[in-house]
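User: Structure with adenosine-5'-triphosphate, tokens only please.
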Amino acid sequence: MKEKNAKFQPQSSGLCPQCGGTGWERILEEGFEKVKRCKCYYEGRRKRLLTSARIPRRYLHCTLDQFDDNYIDRDKWPLDASKPQVNISMAKEAAQSFVRQYPNQSKGLLFMGPCGVGKTHLAVAIIRELIKKKGISCLFYDFRDLLKEIQASYNPQSQTSEISVLGPVLKTEVLLLDELGATKVTDWMRDTLTYIINSRYNENLITLITSNWMDDKRGDEETLEERIGTRLRSRLYEMCKVYEILGPDFRKKNAGFFS
Ligand SMILES: Nc1ncnc2c1ncn2[C@@H]1O[C@H](COP(=O)(O)OP(=O)(O)OP(=O)(O)O)[C@@H](O)[C@H]1O
Ligand SMILES: [Mg+2]
Ligand SMILES: [Zn+2]
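Assistant:
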């Protein structure tokens, strides 16, 4: 009797009616009974991956579909063919193609450009799609938060940082490092960052990066290399395909500055 009741329990307790919450479904194949992963297993995994990706609430809405590339006057943003410059349509295409081809590519992406052109939106949209469509483990980290967390967990006596912060950053299949160079780094921070980037490079793990800092010198502004150091910048060339995004500040568009 108890047995019988237990059978009906899954539905009434909200467990998956297909597998009773085990995550395994029994199937009959060529006369043999086999098990395969139930659909709910993948759905649950995707939900967990999305939660553990640490995407800030402000960017949770960002998808590739929602990235509007129709509103700009492309002639206003002429591209210099000698540089890796793209307009926002080309940047969106690059993001779409990255998702489509994943995991068949060896390099990540580095989106550079001025404020509000959609660098973070595109990068977040990529990790959201990788989670949703391909079940890949991804992690979002704001550059400043990462350094703060590593520093806060740093033990000067043992000269180590807690693995709870560094572990996921080193191991996640795709890391999104947002706003690289946003703070000036000390030697210690630079060493730590170089260690992270190098370890991921050696493990063939993909890193996506956004930055406001450019490679070219513009007036008094520092370059990305000056912000993060020559060694790290040169490592990033090997790890990421660079896109310098040219376009208007979408935040200004939203505020009604232009149509
Ligand atoms: N083409 C677009 N279509 C729809 N929304 C956009 C587009 N570009 C930017 N946005 C939205 O505008 C806001 C600013 O974009 P985002 O934060 O991605 O810019 P950014 O290039 O990362 O800027 P910053 O250099 O200041 O970090 C976000 O809310 C984003 O969702
Ligand atoms: Mg940004
Ligand atoms: Zn199930």
